[in-house]
Amino acid sequence: MNQTKTEVKTIFLDAGGVLFETFIKGDDRIRYLLIERGYQISQIEEAILKAKQTELPFITNWNEEEQYFKRYYGAIAEELGEIELTNELLFFAHFAGHCELYSEVKYVLEELNKEYKLAVISNAMPSMDWIFDRLGIRKYFDSIILSAFVNEEKPRESIYNIALNQANAKSEESIFIDDKLENIEGAERVGIRGLHLDRDRMDLLELLREQQLIRKPINEKTTFK
Fold it and tell me: I want to staple 153 with a disulfide (CB 3.0 to 4.6 A). Which of 32, 77, 105, 147 is the partner?
């Protein structure tokens, strides 16, 4: 499908891996806390391995998410013989408190928001919704579609149709950006043009400039904070 910049009215973006990321991964957050507690790395690895056996259901609200993580972190705490660790791990290791924006994202959203309607489509637990407030970016989006709230996941076609409907957007006038190829393919099955963001090759700003979706050049001395 050929699409020129003037035809694009809505840009859908994935969240994790595109807008923000937990740069210290979950297991490493757990390891850090438990090493500070004095546990040996062999004990910690055994406990994490035990926790990974916790069944992950399809989660649709915070209460379900909290109960899942209490079981997950509780398995670690039980393996270490200190059940009181459960709440500490939930409070300090949970991913929602560790997500940070990629450095170029605020600039990108400011620029895109001048010309396009923006929306999010993300496979995510309910607490992902809070991250948009914590990072100060909710204001840029007309809608935020999380799999937890719509009972559908990428790359199923239904989640893209839900997103189009909520954004009052037409597929032929839309673009979807994701860091996973299978999710791009799902969007293209409903007629949305997909752009794959490979952060090993370029960041979001570079991708958008390559596609002429952001044309304004930035000063070479500009730094993102």
Answer: 147
